[in-house]
Each structure stands twice: as C-alpha cells, then as structure tokens.
Amino acid sequence: MVNESVAAKAHRAQPSTPRDHSSEGVADSIAQAEYPDSLFESHLLFDHVLPPSEVGNRERYEAMARSVRDLLSHHWQRTDQTYRRENPKRIYYLSMEFLIGRSLSNNIVNLQLDPVAAKLFTRHQLDKAAILEEEPDAGLGNGGLGRLAACFLDSMATMQLPAMGYGLRYEYGMFKQLIVDGWQREQPDNWLRRPDPWEVARPGEAVEIRLGCSFEIRGGSLRAIEGIPSSLIGIPYDRPIVGYGGKTINTLRLWASATPDNFDFQEFSGGDFVDALAERLTAETVTRVLYPDDSTAEGRGLRFVQEYFLVACSLADLIRRFRSGNPDWHSLPDKVAIQLNDTHPSLAVAELMRILLDEAGLEWVSAWDLTKRTLAYTNHTLLPEALESWPMRWFELLLPRHLEIIVEIDRHLRQEAADRWPGDEGRAACVGILGGGLVRMANLAIAGSHSTNGVAAIHSRLLREATVRDLAELFPERFNNKTNGITPRRWLLLANPRLAHCITEAIGDSWITNASQLRGLLPLADDKSFVASIRSAKREAKLQFRDWLQATSGIAVDPESIFDSQVKRIHEYKRQLLNGLRIVALYNRLKANPKLDIQPRTFFFAGKAAPAYHVAKLIIKFLNNVAATIDGDPDVRGRLKVVFLPDYNVSLAERLIPASDVSNQISTAGYEASGTSNMKFMMNGALTIGTRDGATIEMAEAAGEENFFLFGLTAEQVAGSRGWYNPWWHYENEAETRAVLDLLLSGHFCRNEPEVVNALRNVLLAGGDTYRHLADLGPYLDADQRLQTLYSRPDEWSKNAILNIASSGRFSSDRTIAEYADEIWNAKPCPVT
Known about the structure:
The protein is an alpha/beta fold.
C-alpha cells in the first residue's frame, strides 16, 4: 500500500529516542520491515504513473535505485553538515576520469543492505539479475586511471576522510565498442539516455567560466574568434560515494557545460539561427564526449577546453567552500588539499595563482607559497606523448591571464635552475615550462605543487631518473611513491561473493576494511578443506561466466579449460600482440603434433583502442582473425579458443576477473606505470604471467616470485637495447619465433587482408619492434610452459592461488589512501555525527 506518504514513513523510521550517531551508519538506522518496501512501491507509482501491467525492469530498477538513494540521503546530508560544522582539512580529488561502474549493487553492498534488498526482491518477485542489468555503466572513464580514481573515492569514504571528487559529466562517455568483421567500430555511448537516479543536479551552485575568445561553427569545424570574450556555465551534478557501513557518504561532483543565462533568445528565434545555435552547441560540446579525437586540431582544442573547464569550475567551487568558514587566505593549505590525478588538471596551478593574485589580492611570493603547499600531483605515465603540452597560442586566445602567470612561473623556475647549476643553460631549458612554442603541463604541475608521486616503485624511480630527471634533482624532497591499490569491497566482496564468503568463514570479515587481514589465509594454503572451498568458488565463477557469455553473445566456452585473460586498453606497449604471438606458437605446436599434451585453453581479450590509433585497431582485427581461424580448424578446436569481449567496462570486469585462472601483465618493462587489473586478478586468485614492470614487481615480492610466472627483459635491459636492438636477429636465430612470423606474415590469419599483414610486419620487423615483442616471445613461451605444468597439478595450483590472495592485501586502495593522507595531504578522519 502507498496511502501513507513517503515522508511520513521516513519520519516514522527514524529513532524515537536520542542516540549517539558517532558510529552509526545508514544500515544501522533503517527500519528493515517495511520502510524500503514503501519507498519502492511509491517510486513505482509516482515516478512513472504507469499501471502495474506496463511497469518493466527499467522502471523497477529506477524505483529500486531511488529507494536506496532515499535511504542514504539523510546521512549524505549529515556528512556535509558535519564537514561544515567541524571545518576539517578537506581533500579535493581532480580527475578527468571516474570509472565508477554501476552504482546500485555497489551501494547495496557498502550500505550492508543485502538482507533488506533480498527481502524486497523476493517479496515483489523481482528478477534481480535482470533489474541490475538495466543500469548502464557510467560513461565517465576509460581505463585504469579512472578506475583508480573510483577506488580512491570508495576508500576515502570508508576511512571517513572528508573528501570530494571533481570530474566532468560526459554525456556520451568515450564510445560503445562493437566488433564488426573483426574490426572495432565506435558508436555513441548514450549512457544518459534515460534518467540517472543517482545524480542530483545543483543549478543553484553553477559556476561561470570566462574565456578570452568566442567560437563559431563553420562548415562543420570549430573556429576561435579572437578578441571577443565568452563564457561557459558549469552546472554541478552530485553523486553519493558510500563508504562501507554507510557511516560516511562523500560526494562526486561532475560538471556539465551550458550556455550563459544571457543567451540571445531573440537572435536564436528570429535572427541568424545558425550563429545562435553554434553558440549553444559549442558550450554543450565541452562535456559531450570523453577524450575527443586527438588526431585533429579541433579535437585537441576541445580537450584543452575540457581540462580548463574542469579546473576552473572545481577550484571556484572548493574555494567557495573554503571561504565559507575560513576568512584568512593564508590558512588555505591547512584546510584544503588538492590532488591532481595525472597531468590533465595541471592548469590548477595557474588557476589557483590567478585566484590568489587577482581575487584575493595577495603578493606573488605569498600566492606561490600557498599554491605549492595546497596542490599535489600524481604522475601516471612514462610515455612522452602522455605528458601533455599545449600550444602557447591557445593560451593567448583562451587564457591570456593564465599565460602571463605561467611565463612568470617559468622565469622563476629557470632562475632556480640557474642558481643550482650555474652556466648550464641546457638543464634550465629541461626544467622550464615553456619551450618550442608549447606549455609543458607536467613541468607546470611539478613546479607548482609540494608533492609529485609515481604509482609503483619502479615507475617512481624511472620518473625521477629519466622522465623528469632535472626537476627531480632540483626538487628531490617533492618526489615520492604511492603504489596504487584497489578497493576490496567492489573487487572481492561484490564481484566474487562465493570467494568472499569462503574467506570470511575462514578468518572473519575484518578483511573488508582491513585487507592486510587476508594474510590470515597463509596457514590455510595446505588445509585440504579450505583448498577445496577455494577451488569450488573458482569453478562456480567460471560456470557463471560461461552461462552469462552464452546467454548474451551465443559464444560457448569450456569451463574445464584454463581461462587465460588480458583485459586493458589496447596499446602497443601493453603488448596484446605478444599474447597473440604466443597463441600462434601454441597453434603451430598443435598443428605439428596433434597428440601434444597441452592443457585446453580459452584466451580472453578485452579493451578499447583509441579511435585514431590505427595500429591498436589492427591488433584487435588480428586477434579476432586468430579467433576465427582457430574456431574453423578441427585440429585445434576444443583445445584452443580465443574470445575478444567487446565494450570492456567495469561490469564485464566484475564477471570475468573472478572467473579467470591466469592474468597476463606483459607490458614492455619500463612502460607500465603501475596497473590495477593485475591487483584485481591477484585478489581473486588468478596467477600472474608477466614481465617485471609496474606494480607486478611488488606483487611478486609480496607473494614470492616462485608463485608468479615472470619472464622477459627488465626495464634496464629495454633501455639499454635502444641503440642496438634488431628484431631480425630473433627471426633468424630462433626457430619457433621464425615459424610464428612466417605463418603470420603468410596471411594465414589475414587472408585477402594485406593491410593487416603489412602493418604487423612493420610493427614487428621493418619498424624495429619498438616494444620488444620478439625479444620476449621465447621467454614468454617458457613461462607459459611452467604455467601449464603447474595447472596440471591442481593442489599445487590452488595453493599458489591462495598464497596470492593472502598476499594481495598490500594492494588495497585503503593502504594507498592512508599513505596519501599521512604523507601528502596531512588529512585526518572526520567521523560523521
């Protein structure tokens, strides 16, 4: 019945006597009998005004999501009120990506509402799986950078840290990936086509952002109009970030761009329709898509505007929050910590300086000191092309005041270098922010912050010793390492409930918020009963994945085979192509000796290639061609199978990772900053075959290298080979490598597709094999043989898997965030009361 109002039932559900709320979360305060039911029924009736016969799973999903949001809203508001009252130092995390995945199931788990939700699903005879499928993955990110940001928000809320995430509300995300005839095809990912029940629009807190020029659309191209200033309006949309137990509910604020209120409606309705429409389109386009096509000047320009829009909106908002309780500008670093997630928000240095100089009226020395002490920077890459540089001309057009500030920062920075290394103009040029008509954003971020951290021990070392060596020597005290982590709430408790149950039965549930407790599993690696339960959990995950894959794609896989996975962005340095060469080698072996004793294997690939990255798209095509060839060959069918899973996202990862036996982490050593998929696989009991790169090195140290399958060149060997490496040597001297390349380049997998064959020949041989595929192929195959041998001994394999799970707690994002809070932010928990 829905006669009683929702508000009345909400009031009735609150405690009738005073209580100590200091340790109370949402789950503690819910009247579990009928309150959620009443909310669900009310939303079903009032939100869509449909008769019961016309209500579908989408409407049921929205009703369920809004019911859960209603339950957490009081505590969400109370979290904000506590921060305002207590005025703690607050953390603001700026990122161009937040790959948050689906929210309903995650919020139910973090609010510990599983029993309540189960009763509701049962009482209303709801298909839980079908309803959860109605929620699209939020199109707010692409890869590890965005997923890390999402894990960090989860950890900060769980650890009761006063924090807020800032990002952009991309209307279409990156793109929806289809595979057509083996090729990647991009379609718009219209994830906001239906209302998002988790977001709350805050138009009353909109921000106006001023630019130094205007824009027009002519002939389908975007063109700047110099000398005519313009504005964008940033409209905030808030999403709840629920800490485990619901004690703290922080906020992710996403900015959408719009036209100012003084938009000329008369012109739009009666004058030059095209010009007026262009003004609206250019404003709305700013947050239309994630990662515009960087192969065009228009795409790169839009990216530049996006980055400034994020920074300007976020800093205006957080400064407003700071000033509401802190009249003294000099207390800014004591009350505000701003973390820049990679180079994308580096304009925060110039924007904060502009605010302190022009709005606060501070002197340069004071403003610069406050800026550096407030900002901190995380570097996520060693690739030069990812260390963004923007043309000075763009600053002249759009942000002339910021350019003035950057020029002055550059002058001071070069003077510091000259004082440190007198007469060495080359080093001053290396540390400089300006050069060759460009503004180097990583240099700006390092110069304008008090901390620069890498995200794995090897990455942080190479960052200091190679990528920004001169800046690291100029400011050695600013450089540190913070190895990445993942949240065990989503990646074990939610994604793998059977395994999580086995662990909790064995050691209790404290591991959920203290993943170091997973080491309590170490003594159980030889316990037959526990080994059997872990093996059963893995088999159940494989069966569930098999059933899901068959139902959604019609693809049949054998759960008795080794599930061997590589899931990540498609890039040459991540070496999906090397994995493909391994599969061709195994194919060759079976063709030469059909009686060869080889474990049946299913190879899973997933990941997107940037639309303009032609080689990456060719690699996808090659992998799909290998899959088709193997499926059509009776000599190997049933023993090898390759599956490329399209449109990789968080929800797919939550299904595949628990089901996987093997994790491929095979980047060229010295190129991967950290990786986080490696940690997710490890925590779910998959064994790693990989190179000594990124955080995989530390994972192997934690679990013991004997429990990993490591191979290949080290980062030092890769760097040392750049002057002399010749892939032809491997072709001419290694018989199996030659056989693999001969078959590949014969067109066996790419019949009538010379474009693919020629591209692969260029990548692997003619182009010099930049990423050392051929140097590591032989060692990769040797490691693969060790893997197959161990898999044939199930008890040893399971023991190894348990040792990996037990050692994975070090890679919890809670540990990472604790290090950020203690060593960079100097921020303390602020329990909600």
